[in-house]
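Agenda item 2: flavin-adenine dinucleotide complex prediction
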Amino acid sequence: MRPANFDYRRPTTVADVLGDLASTPGARVLAGGQSLVPLLNMRLVQPPVVVDINRVEGLDELRERDGRLHVGATVRQATVLASERAQRAVPLLVAALAKVAHPQVRSRGTVVGNLCHHDPASELPAVAVALDAEFTVAVQGEGIRLIAAAEFFGEQFRTAVPPAGLVTGVSFPVAALGTVAGFHEISRKAKDFALIGGAAQFRLDTHAEVVDARVAVTGLGHRPLRMTAVEAALLGAPPTDDALRTASRLATGEVVAEVNARSSAGYRRRVLPVVVHRALRAAAARIEVSA
Amino acid sequence: MTATPPVAARPKYVGGAVKRREDPRLLLGRGRYVADIHLAGTVHMAIVRSPHAHARITSVDTSRASAAPGVLAVLTWDDIRDQAGPIPCIDVYPDSIPVLQTALADGVVRYVGQPVAVLVATTEYGAEDALSLVDVQYEQLPAVLDLDGATAGDVLLHPEHGTNVVTTIAQDVGDVDAAFATADHVYEETFTIHRYLPVPMETRGVVAEVDPITERLTLTTSTQFPHLVRGFLAGVLGMPESRIRVVAPDVGGGFGAKCEFYCEEILAPLLALRLRRPVKWVEDRREHMIASSHAREQKHTVRVAVTGDGTVTAVDARSWTNNGAAYCTLATTPASISSAMLRGPYRIPHYRARAHSVVTNKTPLAVYRGAGHPQAVLVMERMMDIIAADLGRDRVELRLQNMLTPEELPSDRGTAIVLAGQVVYDTGDYGYCLRRAAEMIGLSPSWAAEQEAARAEGRYLGIGVASLVEETAIGPYESAVVRVDSAGKVTVLTGSSPHGQGHVTTFSQLVADELEIDLDDITVLHGDTDVVVDGVGTFASRSAAIGGAAARRAAGVVKDKALQVAAHLLEIDVADLEWRDGAAVVRGMPDRSLSLGELAVAATAWNAPLPGGMAWNLEATYQHQAAGIAFSNATHAAKVAVDVETGQVEVLDYVVVHDCGTVINPTIVDGQVHGGVAQGLGGTFFEEAGYDADGQPQALNLQDYLMPTAGDMPWIRTDHMQSPTPLNPYGMKGAGEGGATGAPGALVNALQDALASFGVTLASDGPWTPERVLALIPAEVDQR
Ligand SMILES: Cc1cc2nc3c(=O)[nH]c(=O)nc-3n(C[C@H](O)[C@H](O)[C@H](O)COP(=O)(O)OP(=O)(O)OC[C@H]3O[C@@H](n4cnc5c(N)ncnc54)[C@H](O)[C@@H]3O)c2cc1C
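Presented output:
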């Protein structure tokens, strides 16, 4: 459990990061290190160069702009979790972060690093997919481009970030007034990775009926799945527990047995509606609070 | 007679919740573990381990590794076969088949992780880099992993023996066949107990160093028994013990995994002797999961004879322990304890057990907190619930009916435990602990109605109890030296080397009370065979009862001698002196006294020798010998809630009513119970050392091998009952293992109670993951 040899760089500008990444094929970005360092120690990855982005200026911003909350590449999970602005703007992200690891890990781990790592059991990719998050990706000589969450997540542990690419940040749409959100997961023990997790968010219109429902589930297969049938079933009706439960029964999606093998495909299939229902229920429980 | 003014009794330390004296240093990060030892010129050892469960080694080519930068030596079995004997096993039976491991594989590897070659480099990174340069060719052999397959014997680990069943232990009490012939009910069940690991927070590690002048070897190792390691190493290397010093520095937990003598404890000394440089190795977690001893895995088939009134008259038990690929230092102890102790607190006059130790292509298995007790308790306590349910009897009442009462003790149980001896229960009130635990957890006549009401609301609650009697405080002996210096300060040397138990605190309490001095005047030293010349170690919940008794007796001898010295100095009869507040005081004349320090000075005064050839110095060595086994007892009670939609189990409440004889320090005893319960809970719900069909281990890190954390623990409520043992003058029994021993039985019984309405009969200790629990629940249940 000692890493193989690698060169370590700690640039202070995005341009230098991109230069370092471009100059050595296979170079890896180091953010919070909570996933990368164990991989290095177990020699599951052996990059020739590790580019530490923690001293890069401007990547640690958490701010609202043009109706979106922008989370820079070095913003810690703990920072977002503790941020009242984030709680107001993207309550689903905060609800999910409360389930990510424990405080020691969250105080180093970043939101962006978590998404780039793309563990198929991680909570945050489900949030990104549910909310149509947008990633800002920079590559030397190619400028900056935006990648939508729907295109971002590849097979497990893979993303659409090109080689030598740096994700400088991710943005989420700011929730409209009256939006409620909930995250529910089943894990083998407290604070462990999810066997399966559901992210749910919706808003009530003036008739107290559901609009803009968003539901996604993590842990089933390579990437988080939107539960479009559930979303559709919720629309236009009051979110009674019966309505939530009935809608949850429409949750389906391909379960890939060998992905997230902490539990069998059969188990995940069986509890899928339960997780969706409970995520919705957690969201509904916040209705009074936000009204 | 003049009345002496009453002197306020000095408060006793024993029985008080004294704060642990070792904690400030440890909590401030000032521990010194093996990894913290940095000797000048240290070189680093790394081990090439088998990637196969069973294979013949066809060739080992070390040339590329030897040529790698910084690599100083690469050794294979051929290089050391003449220098290192096999690893001893100390608990074999006379007819055990010897299946001993060697420090490096002798041509055949029998489990993933077995050491095949060893190398040393100038840096630990260089050593790890060089591992992949050792070219080992294997010819794979079929592997056998499970007990049934290994017992069938189609694949043999050691073909020369013709069987994989390497030890069979027999326990025979009464007339079992006659009891079954007259039984009204016979119950039969087979239980599986899965494999899991002690997983101490600190992994193992060694530093071996040879003094260039004296040629003496010092092995610093994270062990529970440095004195035994000294003896083993001397034997394996053919070296006199006088040339070996073994040091156990701070040890970050052991739980049985470090109550073993390992390959690395041979390899590092061999390399240090060759290279004449300190050789260091610290096990990483991945290695730990395959190279440190595993535990628990057993299968039990029991038949139980019961008469119409609920009297359990006989048990006929067979068990198989999956010992992995070879004997450990303590290999048959789990099977021995399970078979000797299966009946627990119950009378059951007729008993037969055959306990088989079986070799398979898994990591060798040894003792782990509770050794064979948790398995036995699970089996017996599940059976009591099964019988109660079938007979429509109250679970507590049925147990009480069959339990030994205090009046029936001592009770010779007719069984024996390897290394420990005859099982003769000494003292205890088992029924009290059960009744009290049942009352505390709320297992009252109204429980069934409460449970029914909760179920109507979709909440599946269960309560389980498990009563246990546990072998503790085994011998053969422990040594102690108590020495007083001229300042009146006291040094205690103990051969019982701690790894988290708090010996410094509890031994100080015992000695402080004996000498009537302050705790701060006492220093306790341990864990270095040059400082403490004689000792046994810390395991089997023995330290307080055996080592603590030795320390207090040694202090008593010192006190007696101090009184003699005082009598000589004061020229009065010793009978006219009494010991008070750390001084010899003339009876009725409190001003005329001599302090411990003054007496120590007198005992070393060259110009005024003590009379009658009395030995110099205020010092005594005492060896406390165990005259028998002290048996602790407890009842655990757990209350759980099962989420029938997801299979998740929440432990709502947990109670332990515990009797370990005289309690020296209730905080420490509670801590021992809490830690043990955490490990039992971990084994019941999370921890599993799984293997795939080819013998590849499935849990190589703590992401895959789940340990309980604070967030998973219930609030544990304890109550203490004290039935002192007559086996030492102070009444202490062992407290170290009862927590782990009772938890699986209580938790599985609680789960059973919660799920009983689904018609299930749980016959395994788990781990009860959400998935396994949900599989017991029909799918319609969540379609409310
Ligand atoms: C004990 C423990 C428990 C955990 N539990 C959970 C859990 O329950 N749920 C969960 O979701 N996660 C969990 N994690 C993972 C944790 O959330 C990590 O912080 C996260 O996965 C990675 O974030 P990081 O900032 O540490 O990234 P790093 O480890 O530094 O990097 C992760 C990967 O992303 C790449 N990367 C990082 N930043 C960028 C960037 N800006 N551009 C391009 N590539 C980048 C790296 O090269 C690397 O491949 C746990 C971790 C630990 C140690």
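Discussion summary: Residues A 28-36, 73, 100-101, 105, 109-110, 112-114, 116-117, 119, 122-124, 161, 166-167, 193 surround flavin-adenine dinucleotide (CB under 6 Å).
Owner for follow-up: CH.
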